[in-house]
Specification:
- The complex is a heterodimer.
- Helix content of chain A is 27%, strand content 26%.
- Chain A is of the alpha/beta class.
- Chain A folds into 2 domains: 2-172, Rossmann fold (3-Layer(aba) Sandwich); 196-320, TPP-binding domain (Rossmann fold), CATH 3.40.50.
- Chain A has a 7-stranded parallel sheet with strand order 7-10-6-1-4-5-11, with helices on both faces. Chain A has a 5-stranded parallel sheet with strand order 14-13-15-16-17.
- Chain A is elongated, with a radius of gyration of 21 Å.
- In chain B, the strands form 3 sheets. Chain B has a 9-stranded mixed sheet, with helices on both faces.
- Chain B is an alpha/beta fold.
- Chain B has helices at residues 37-53, 70-79, 94-108, 127-135, 188-196, 233-243; strands spanning 2-6, 9-11, 19-20, 25-26, 33-35, 58-64, 83-87, 112-116, 139-149, 152-159, 162-169, 172-176, 199-202, 211-217, 226-228.
- Helix content of chain B is 29%, strand content 32%.
- Classes of the chains: A alpha/beta, B alpha/beta.
- At the A-B interface, helix 2, helix 3, strand 7, strand 8 and strand 9 of A face helix 1, helix 3, helix 4, strand 9 and strand 10 of B.
- Bound molecules: flavin-adenine dinucleotide.
- Flavin-adenine dinucleotide binds next to helix 5, helix 6 and helix 7 of chain A.
Chain lengths: 321, 247
């Protein structure tokens, strides 16, 4: 009986989303009066023992380089075997592309109930109930898992990562590693940018910016804040911005600390992808834009005038801080 | 070549989200149902595009749902599926639903199974992975591009902070999202043809439900927007820094 946390990595480094689930998983373990352990498939260059500061006592590593690329069949078999070998009764993923690819497979393999998109600690006072976002962020469902092994896939940015003291022991784990049937032939990272789903701050532009040639002022603002950039669906559809920046009900769902919407009307489908953001700022020249109803702060004004001034003001604040 | 496209119904994206029966049931009053956009715009349309290139491809649709899902299936058939199977069950447990689809998949001997990336109501993102596991096939999720050459599929999929190109030999399960295809509108000929296309109803096989939804909640309402004058952006910066502690 322990909590096992899946640790994802890329380019030799543990992903930020994994630090969040380590903290979360450790808290689940504390709640259940058991220990939290990590599971890492593949190899990294950083010191895994240091992950102990997120509350895990042990990291099981299947140090096989073949696992540095994701094949869901191979991963699911290895993870399922690790769950059995470590006697884990709760398995935690981050609901990132990797988590989405793997958690469901493991669930079917182990016949272990899965809740994806979890957004809070489970309620273990009577059974095991996990809160998750449904209707694309417009509501939450409380879902009870009935099976002996339980799997939670936590929405990124729903739990505060906390680093304390401590080191973990790193132990090699021997599990069968099958031959991959999926061959990865190219990896195209959007280099230099902050990945959208991991970003603390997102600056997003809509049709109000009129055309791709006007994105400079938005990129400047994003840069001054170290923010990732996003856009509304029509902007992605018109190829003003790459389609992976499209947020909303039919695009990426984000939940940053701060979401700044510029020239976006705030259609219900757009809001569905961003309304889990902690603070929403809306800049729109139309005081009647529906987005203001979902916002914490707003400026009624022309983006072409407001953005450059805002960027300057932020730079000034940062310089004096 | 046989392609199985999984389709489900979901409330129209403008539907008011409310609950009844002590917050245990979604309030369906006045709700318009649509085909889940990920199933329709991306996976079904891509299957149709593949068939337009190679007429020997058969497209079968499968849905797990009650009789009230039939208008959705007819619409999907109007877009271009050849025939449809409805597994008669109202279950909302992903594993139970995946077990039904896996059963249809095994019987039909499909080369390719498409799902949408997730449904707009439960946002599970689980069916594809579960079906793949149950039929022991490779699974590529969150595809943004899908190409087929003989029995080799080349798929671009979303990863954190970018994309990755992967190759797989069929059979395989693929979940689709934006980029794979463009939305289409069914035409009159399609709508007429859909009326006579086969829609088979089968009873579910025995399977366990692993989870139960015990209740719903709505998010707390926002306190209301604080407006800052456009001439005074410094004030916004101050509020974000000192009050919201967001920058
Ligand atoms: C099934 C379905 C799914 C959808 N999914 C999504 C989704 O996932 N994501 C999404 O975003 N949309 C989605 N949509 C589309 C959505 O309904 C809206 O059409 C879209 O979000 C509008 O984008 P926008 O706000 O950029 O453009 P518009 O609605 O055209 O709004 C532009 C805004 O810019 C403001 N503006 C204009 N000029 C300026 C200026 N100089 N300075 C400041 N403000 C200015 C205007 O006042 C206006 O409010 C979906 C629609 C459907 C039917």
């Amino acid at each position: 009986m322990s909590v096992l946390i899946f640790i994802d990595h890329a380019d030799g480094h543990v992903k930020k989303s994994s630090l969040e689930v380590l903290t979360y998983g450790a808290k689940v373990a504390a709640q259940l009066g058991t220990t939290a352990e990590g599971l890492l498939l593949g190899t990294v260059t950083e010191d895994l023992a240091a992950l102990g500061k997120y509350g895990v006592s042990k990291i099981h590593q299947v140090a096989n380089e073949a696992l540095n690329h994701l094949d869901t069949q191979v991963y699911a078999a290895a993870i399922a075997e690790a769950v059995t070998a470590t006697g884990a009764t709760v398995l935690v993923f981050s609901h990132t592309p990797t988590g989405k690819a793997v958690a469901a497979r493991v669930s079917a393999k182990l016949k272990a109930g899965l809740v994806t998109g979890a957004c809070a600690l489970p309620d273990t006072s009577n059974g095991f109930v996990v809160k998750k976002g449904v209707f694309s962020g417009k509501a939450f469902a409380n879902v009870s898992i009935q099976t002996p092994v339980k799997i939670i896939s936590l929405n990124p940015n729903s739990y505060m990562t906390v680093a304390g003291e401590g080191t973990a022991t790193v132990a090699p784990l021997a599990v069968a590693v099958g031959a991959a049937k999926v061959k990865v032939t190219a990896v195209n990272k959007v280099s230099g940018d902050v990945p959208l789903t991991e970003a603390d701050i997102v600056v997003s532009g809509g049709r109000g910016l009129k055309g791709p040639e006007n994105w400079g002022i938005l990129l400047d603002l994003a840069k001054s804040l170290g923010a990732a950039t996003a856009c509304s669906r029509p902007v992605g559809d018109a190829h003003w911005r790459p389609h992976h920046e499209h947020v909303g009900q039919t695009g990426v769902q984000v939940a940053p600390n701060l979401y700044i919407a510029v020239g976006i009307s705030g259609a219900i489908q757009h809001l569905a992808g961003v309304n889990r953001s902690k603070i929403i700022v809306v800049i729109n020249k139309d005081p009647e834009a529906p987005f203001f109803k979902a916002a914490d702060y707003g400026i009624v004004g022309d983006a072409f005038e407001v953005l450059p001034k805002l960027t300057e003001a932020i730079k000034k604040m940062k310089a004096s801080a | 070549m046989k392609i199985l496209v999984c389709v489900s119904k979901t409330p129209d994206t403008t539907s008011k989200v409310a609950f009844t029966d002590g917050n245990t049931k979604f309030d369906e009053a006045g709700v318009q149902w649509i085909i889940n956009p990920y199933d329709e715009w991306y996976s079904l349309v891509r299957a149709i595009e593949l068939k337009e290139r190679d007429a020997s491809i058969a497209i079968h649709l499968v849905t797990v749902g009650g009789a009230d899902t039939e208008p959705i299936i007819r619409k999907a058939l109007a877009l271009g599926g050849d025939e449809a199977i409805r597994v008669n069950s109202d279950s909302t447990d992903s594993y139970y639903i995946a077990a039904q689809i896996a059963e249809i998949a095994r019987q039909g001997g499909y080369d390719l199974i498409f799902t949408g990336k997730e449904t707009l109501d439960y946002n599970g993102s689980s069916i594809g992975g579960m079906v793949a596991e149950l039929v022991d096939a490779p699974y590529i999720s969150l595809a943004t591009k899908f190409d087929l050459e003989g029995t080799t599929a080349t798929v671009t999929r979303e990863i954190e902070g970018g994309e990755e190109v992967a190759e797989v030999t069929l059979p395989a399960v693929v979940s689709c999202q934006k980029g794979v295809a463009e939305q289409r509108i069914p035409n009159m000929r399609g709508i007429m043809a859909a009326r006579t296309k086969p829609l088979k109803v089968v009873e579910p096989v025995a399977a366990d439900a692993l989870t139960t939804v015990i209740g719903f909640e709505l998010p707390p309402a926002k306190a209301g927007v604080k407006l800052v004058d456009a001439e005074n952006v410094e004030e916004l910066v101050r509020l974000l820094h000192e009050e919201a502690k967001a920058i």
